[in-house]
Design brief:
The chain contains eleven helices and eleven strands. The chain is an alpha+beta fold. The strands form four sheets. The protein has a four-stranded antiparallel β-sheet, with helices on both faces. A three-stranded antiparallel β-sheet has the order 4-3-11. A two-stranded antiparallel sheet has the order 1-2.
Length: 336
Amino acid sequence: MKFKLPLLLLLVLPSTFVCAQVASHAPTALKQPPAQASGDNPVARVNGVALTQSDLVREEYAIFPYVRQHGGDLPKELEPQIRAGALRMIVFEELVYQEALRRKMTIPVARMQRAQADFQKQFASPEEFNAFLAGDFHGSQQLLTEKIRRSLLIEALLKIEVENKSLISPVQLRAYYDNNAAQFDHPESYTFQTISILPPQSATPQQVKEGRTRADKALEQARTTKTAEQFGLLAEKLSDDDYRVVMGQHKPVPLDQLAPQVVAALKPMKPGNISGVIQIDAACTIIRLNQHTPAGKTPFLQVKAQLQKELHEKKRNQLRSAFDQKLRATAKVEEM
C-alpha cells in the first residue's frame, strides 16, 4: 500500500520533462524505495544538505507509479528523463524547504495535529501504521512528524510564491479571450462515425468487387440502427479500419481535411443520417453524421472553464520555474 500526506500541493515538473509528468513532495518523503536502492548514497547536496539515492528513487516512483509493473525498473527509453526530472524535483523541494526555514515560517499546532491525524487514517489498523513507522522511520514518531512538518512548510511557501500569484481574475480571463480572438475561431467541421471496408494491398478486381458487396450488406444493417451506439456496435463488428475500436467515432474533422467524395455525401445530411456507400478507389465507407459545426467563433462561456484552467496552469509553471531559478541563484547545488 502507498501512503501520502493529505492536501499537499502537486508540483509539475519542468516542461522539458517527458509528457509533463506530475510529482508531489509528499510521496517523496514517505514512499518506500525499491529494495535494491542504495539508500544512503548521496545524489546531490543543496547548501551542504545531502539528498540520497532513496530520495531520488522515491521521487521516480512518484513520477512513474507503474514501475512495479516493470519489475522495479524504469522503462529504459524513459529512464534518463525520469531520473533527471526526479533529481530536479528533490533539489527544488529542498531549496523551498530551506527558504521556508530562512523566513522562519512555522506550521500552527492545530494544522500539524490535523495533518498527522489525516495521515494515520490512511492505515487500516494501528498495527499497520506501526509497521510502516518501524520500516521507514526506525519506529520514531518524531522523525515522521518532522517529515510532515517539512512537507507542510513546502506547501505553505509554494502557496505564497506560486499558487496565490497564479490565480487568473475574471477581468484577465476576458481580456485574454478578447485579445486573442483568432485562437477561438474554428473552421467548419463534421463529427461522424464510420464503417469502412478496406481491400487488401494490391487487390484484384474480384477482391474489389467482393469488398463492395460486403459494403452494400453493411449498409443494409447500418440503416436499421437508430442511435450512435447501435451504429458504433456495428462498426466494432464490421469495420476494417482502426476506428472500429472506438465504435467508429471520429473527432471533429475540418471540412478541408475531408475527401471530396466524403464532403459531397455529408453536405445534404442531417445529424443522425446515414450515408450510402462512399467509394474512394477500392475502399468503401459508410458514414453516420453526428454533428455539423459551421465555421465561427467559440463563445466565451463555452471556453471559460478550460481557458481558466490552462492560463492558471501556464502562469503557475512560469512562477514555479522563476522561483526555482531565484532560489538556485543564491544556493550551492552539487549534483553527484
